[in-house]
Structure prediction request, 490 residues.
Amino acid sequence: MSETASYIAVDLGAESGRVMLGTMAAGKLHLEELHRFSNGPVEVSGSLRWDFDRLLDEVKQGIRRAAAKARSGPLGIGVDTWGVDFGLIGDDGRLIEAPYHYRDSRTNGMMDKAFELMPKRDIYQNTGIQFMQLNSLYQLLSMRLAGSTALARTRRLIFMADLFSYYLCGKAFGEYTLASTSQMMDMATGRWSKAIFEKLGLPMEIMPEIVMPGTVVAPLTDKVAREIGCGKISVIAVGSHDTASAVLGVPGTGTNWAYLSSGTWSLMGVEIPKAIIDDKTFGYGFTNEGGVQNTIRLLKNIMGLWLVQECKRQWQREGQDLSYAELTDLASKAKPFFGYIDCDWSDFLAPGDMPARINKYLSQTGQPTTHDKGQMVRLVLESLALKYRRTLEAIEDVTGNIIDVLHIVGGGIQNELLCQFAADATGKRVVAGPIEATASGNILMQAIATGRLQSIEEARAIVRQSFDLKEYQPRNVSMWTQKYEQYTQR
Prediction:
């Protein structure tokens, strides 16, 4: 690839969104952030929702800036977001209501309701997806059981990234990697699971057509192009699930590596050619999500830095506004291995007083509690690192492949203490970077779609040539192994 090509990446996360201009030339990718905005749940009549109208306005502002900055017309726009959440479109082609946030309490108890209608093992055999109450399946079931009038008026369900694309180009679709997170797709066929919809009494007719990543969907509508002040740029289905884009942006080589997309969530796994759905993956709680270019992401969803984020917000409410850097510095000076938590404890899922919940867990498990902020952050980071080791060992058991390198990408690499703990706990060499793996993967998929790149391997070579990476070597492995044995016995 010798000619210059530019693309626009819209990357929306649970805490913030950004619009990036990506320029590819001479075998390298240059990223420029042109618009960043906050994100988070808003309360509407006692429920948690996404402020979609505001977010869409922010997205359009970012596209306007990126299109104006590009030296030549951008070849595409790709949107990626978190998984599972969706909007409901009525007969008039508009949103019926603000989309629910995956942490809303309406899914409480819904997994048990689902298992009454279809055995848990059968659901897993169909979908290969990790059981989490936030999955689209339980969100939709909660609406059906509640007699939702919004659901009764729905013509089309559209997942979040594709919902933004729909409002940009006017075409409803369900991108494969994003749709796969719903726990409603048959991973053997890549289509909606008829068995799931029939057993749980869900309306399959509202589901969108599934398209593969790399599909050029449609140009911006005339109205949107005029509003933004740009040409009719093509909207491209990338790996619309942000982790699918992030995995494409991992600078790995060969097959003996695993990835950790580190941020609000920690998503840890490997890229494989075919879903593994058996008693082992079921027992370990692994998920098989769609990847780009006919791959599967075998991974585990781990609660991640959400725990620290919520602690920070609580301390801010109490009058102490400490930065993440300050909290990490305090953690580095705190006592090692003060305690352990299960980062995926159900009480940690919802927003609220996280320090109190962590102390509740410590108390219930016979461990000392703490009100020292550095100590609390350190025990969260150490617990995450130990969870990474457990997950990595399970991956090796399931795949029969020994992992040599753990690639950590995403905003979490800014927490260098956690990166070092990950190396120490797993005993693996850790390579951190790029921080903008998701935006990189988004743009690289657009380049593949438009014929500027030919393969995943070529895309990852560009990542290696374009970004500075930092390595962490394991330290104090014997001590971490001893602590890991204690951790696994809890």
